[in-house]
Design goal:
Elements lengths: L1 E5 L11 E5 L7 H17 L3 E7 L2 H5 L11 H11 L3 E6 L2 H4 L3 H12 L2 E7 L12 H10 L3 E5 L3 E2 L2 E2 L2 H9 L3 H8 L3 E8 L4 H4 L5 E5 L9 E9 L2 E10 L11 E6 L10 E11 L7 H19 L2
Parallel strand pairs: 1-4, 2-3, 2-5, 3-4, 5-6
Antiparallel strand pairs: 7-8, 9-10, 9-14, 10-13, 11-12, 11-14, 12-13
Helix pairs in contact: 7-8
Length: 310
Amino acid sequence: MKVFHGLPTDEGLSFEPNVMAIGNFDGLHLGHQKLLQNLKDDSRRFKLPTLVLTFYPHPVEVIRPSVRLARLMTTEEKLEALENFGIDQVFILKFNQALALMEASDFFHSILIRRLHARSIRVGDNFCFGRGRKGDIEVMRKLSDDAKTQLQVEPALGVDQDRVSSTRIRKLIETGKVRDAISLLGRPYELRGQVVRGDQRGAEIGFRTANLRVSHEKLLPARGVYAVYAVWQKQRFAAVVNIGCRPTFGGSDETVIEVHLLDLEATLYDEFIAIELVDFLREEHRFESVSALTEQIGKDIILARKCLKT
């Protein structure tokens, strides 16, 4: 898969005629997957390569600078998922104030048609673009007709009488409803990062943990204890993770992610692992004693094994 970064006017960027999908694709959820599968069908029909046009940073962070939008996927994770999906090319458009102020017709003609050479464009049914988001689907249809470019509008995918969206998934994860999020993502929500040294509290009480440092861009789920799978060196291990501030040991100013692998004793310092969140077990709270905490961890492990069916 070819990956391009920057602005379409940058020297050295060269695009052949293609079938294009436009969107943020954060999380690559079931709705995104349906759109991209149809894009691949467009590719076979028109005999042209696929191109996904996405944005960095997220447009809302440029339009509303006070907003920090936590991601379901880092850029690296998104690119990996798109490559696994079989996309030929990805262009990560650097979104800035100049683009935010560009009129919809200018964006369409100067970027999508003249620079990126789109022959067919596929977007979601709530797609808007251009200054003030005035370029809605009807505007897009007229511009596409005038340019003799195919426009394919993907209807929303519904689950449980509501549309599948990145916003909906973020709200579920923020409230710890990771099992519900799975039904919209088509897979568990994942956190990736490097194992860093902690204060050895887990080992001291008989439950060795790997402290996971993840990208600051990633959306963290609600504080609490979760049943997860840990993925290391292409192997999956049943695990329990605590996401929180460790109140029993005086608390922490930062959110700590502590992973206890149930059937692996290896020390994973500096290794990169991923955790797939499967189910919420309980909220984090302060215990009156270390023995009470260790007793509860034992119960957490039993429940996690049931959730993970190991």
